[in-house]
Write a structure and sequence with these properties.
The chain has about 100 residues and is an all-beta fold. The protein contains no helices and nine strands. The chain has one domain: Beta Barrel (Thrombin, subunit H), CATH 2.40.10. Strands 4-1-7-8-9-6-5 form a seven-stranded antiparallel sheet, with no helix packed on it.
Length: about 100
């Protein structure tokens, strides 16, 4: 899996603005992870059926790279938004990330 960070783009006044394209993400590191599906749901938003799947993704703790909730993970053509990052047992050995797969 590839850990990716969002690239901020500044407007003319120097304010950061979000860019909603795949090219607005930069690779930070390659991680060896385990993926466990937790739940799945379907809902209707703006007249469309939206399917969501939540996953728990675990990797070894790495102090050299920031793994934060505003990052995402890429796995082939799949991407996962990181919702929460947990230091398992507060021992700095494993990181558990609660994620939502983008559809």
């Amino acid at each position: 899996m590839t850990l990716q960070a969002h690239i901020g783009v500044a407007n003319r006044m120097g304010e950061a603005r979000a860019v909603a394209t795949d090219s607005a993400w930069s690779d930070i590191a390659t991680l060896f992870c385990s993926i466990t599906p937790l739940t799945g749901d379907e809902r209707i938003e703006a007249g469309k059926i939206i399917a969501g799947v939540s996953h728990n993704i675990e990797t070894r703790y790495r102090g050299d790279i920031p793994i934060v909730a505003k990052n995402r993970l890429a796995f082939g053509a799949r991407t996962f938004e990181i919702g929460a990052v947990l230091n398992v047992d507060e021992r700095s050995k494993m990181i558990s990330m609660l994620c939502r797969e983008n559809q």
